Amino acid sequence: xxLNSIERLLEKYDNGETSLxxxxxxxxxxxxxxxxxxxxxxxxxxxxxxxTKQEQFTKDVPLxxxxxxxxxxxxxxxxxxxxxxxYLLTDxxxxxxxxxxxxxxxxxxxxxxLNLVSTKFNKGASSLNxxxxxxxxxxxxxxxxxxxxxxxxxxxxxxxxxN
Length: 163
What we know:
Layout: H1 2-15, H2 20-30, H3 40-53, H4 69-90, H5 101-158
Helix pairs in contact: 1-2
């Protein structure tokens, strides 16, 4: 009778449905010396729980967070660049008309260089699109091979062929 109730409690314990009182009953039962052989694994488990309950962590835990100065300076620099660029873009007094000949030439060369970089990036992106197309076709081929394998297995079952 006791064994049946212990097995029901163990089933509830495995499903996570036991109360604290029921878990105490299980701990008390498995603290005994004679336990049925089919429940020996639970005895070891509950003995482990009792042993680890006595353990304590004695190492000091540092509470000071590590400081990452580099990240702070990078974020400060990013904010500064952002503020300067917003200021320069919103400054309506200085347009392209007010630039000197040298400044206008530097501006045009910069625009040309950025356009060149943009076209190169676009060519690289289109190459990646071609690779994704190849990948999709490869996946379709793998699916087709799976269908052939299933067909072969079904045919072998129908004709009772053994491998």
